[in-house]
Design brief:
4 helices, Serine Threonine Protein Phosphatase 5, Tetratricopeptide repeat, about 65% helix, flat
Length: about 70
């Protein structure tokens, strides 16, 4: 979770690209149900960065991945 937190700090400092770099290093256990909460938090944070970078479709894609269900 420390990579997620480091990404969050960079995002707060307005350095979205650096934040994305840290978020992109997320744990290989993500994608398995072992750490779904951590994965969802990271995917939501990535979506937030893309939202602030005005890349709305990418933001939506990450928000949807973070959602516990894939449909509305």
């Amino acid at each position: 979770m420390s990579l997620n937190n480091t990404g969050l700090v960079y995002d707060t400092l307005g350095e979205g690209q650096k934040a994305l770099g840290y978020y992109g290093k997320r744990s290989p256990s993500y994608g398995r149900s072992v750490n779904r909460f951590g994965e969802a938090a990271t995917l939501t944070n990535i979506g937030s960065v893309y939202d602030r970078l005005d890349e709305k479709q990418k933001a939506l894609d990450y928000y949807e991945q973070a959602s516990p269900s894939s449909g509305p």
